[in-house]
């Protein structure tokens, strides 16, 4: 039992220390966009859920290396609450982006998660 508790605490610890985010999904998104606009990729990636931060950082760095970050930020500013039903722990949004392959605008979903330990909303994907 003691080892199980140790393991559980080790899993929970990063979530208990994760204070990056806002009181609402919209506030977290605004903080995320602000960090991107300032070119602070490290900070921007911290608005993602702990389990997704490294992957997010790699993705954002890739956008930056291809000089597509400013275009992406403009697309991210079109965030709208989705018609998908939100819950206490999760909230669903989407943003519009231009797909050059299809030569038209498409929507991409953004899911937010409420961190119960630090009471902030995090971007899941």
Give a summary of the structure in a few sentences.
By secondary structure, this protein is α+β, with helices and mostly antiparallel strands. The chain has five helices and four strands.
Structure description:
This protein has 125 residues and is an alpha+beta fold. It is globular. It starts with a helix and ends with a strand. The chain is 43% helix and 22% strand. Strand 3 (104-115) and strand 4 (120-123) form a beta hairpin. The mean pLDDT is 92. The chain has a four-stranded antiparallel β-sheet, covered by helices on one side. The protein has five helices and four strands.
**Structural class based on helices, strands and sheet pairing:** alpha+beta
Cα-based radius of gyration, to the nearest Å = 16 Å
Output the helix-strand order. HHHHHEEEE
* Biggest sheet descriptor: 4 strands, antiparallel
- Could you give the count of β-strands? 4
Alpha-carbon distance between the two ends = 34 Å
Low-confidence stretches: none
What gross morphology would you assign? globular
Query: How many H/I helical runs?
Result: 5
Q: Give the fraction of residues assigned to helices.
A: 40-55%
Name the average pLDDT. Answer: 92
Strand order of the largest sheet: 1-2-3-4
Strand content: 15-25%
């Amino acid at each position: 039992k003691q080892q199980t508790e140790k393991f559980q605490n080790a899993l929970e610890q990063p979530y208990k220390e994760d204070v990056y985010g806002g009181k609402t999904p919209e506030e977290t998104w605004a903080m995320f966009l602000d960090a991107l606009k300032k070119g602070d990729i490290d900070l921007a990636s911290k608005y993602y859920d702990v389990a997704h931060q490294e992957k997010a950082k790699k993705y954002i760095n890739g956008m930056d290396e291809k000089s597509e970050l400013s275009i992406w930020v403009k697309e991210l500013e079109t965030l709208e609450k989705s018609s998908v039903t939100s819950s206490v722990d999760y909230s669903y949004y989407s943003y519009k982006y231009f797909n050059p392959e299809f030569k038209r605008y498409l929507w991409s979903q953004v899911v937010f998660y409420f961190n119960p330990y630090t009471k902030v909303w995090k971007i899941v994907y």
